Model the fold of this input.
Amino acid sequence: MTMKVAVLQMTSGSDMAVNIIAFESMVRDAAAAGAYLIASPENSDLMGLDVTEKVARVCLETDHPMISLCESLAQELGVWISLGSIAIKASAQKFYNRSYLFSPAGKVVASYNKIHLFDVDLPSGEIRRESKGVEAGDQMVVAHTDFSDVGLSICYDVRFPQIYRKMAQAGAGVLFIPAAFTVSTGQMHWEVLLRARAIENGAFVIAAAQCGDHGHDRKTYGHAMIVNPWGEILAEAGEVPEIIYANLDLDEVRRARGAIASLTHDRDF
Done:
């Protein structure tokens, strides 16, 4: 099976309504270009806010306008939509960084709460404490689709190869890694990590990304990417909002895993 994929690179800001307009426009453009699967980045709904303000503005799942929009767009356009992540209220103090997968029937097939939270002190002096506002998830998610089983993850998860190994061994041939990578870490690690996750698991990696200046001292790297199971970059964005495309030959997963059957060679020690 060959399938056209579109990956969105966005510069989401602090106005959800503006972000939603940009998202819908890009999804419609991607569908018009023939994409059957459309993927958006982490924080598609809101960026550029301090933790307190973001916690105050997040929605319950039943009230989030991006969910109802994706349901209607997926059904109208007959496409799969991977909504990289949005903020969903968890409590008075915290929210979930949650990814969704919508089917062409307009249904939520799966959702995933980010497990690994970005609490770091970078050499650049940048300090991030995602756990101050985000409630961590604790469940790996592999979803069934009509083109492949797929694994859901978000950004910082990419540094923890064990979750992708488990996804691949559970049958996932496509791995979603939507992100809002910092500039300093992106320059050094982004491409290497994405290609490594693809190669070691014999899987396609679909990595939508945020880019540019989001306000409140938050800048992201961009370079959204589509990588095949052999580690070849099929498409890569630059540092501005855009859509990248690739035609995926899903049989490449079988061929890569047949050539190097490392998923069957793990050993306990």
Summary: The CA atoms of residues 143 and 150 lie 5 Å apart. The chain has a mean pLDDT of 97. The first helix runs from residue 16 to 32.
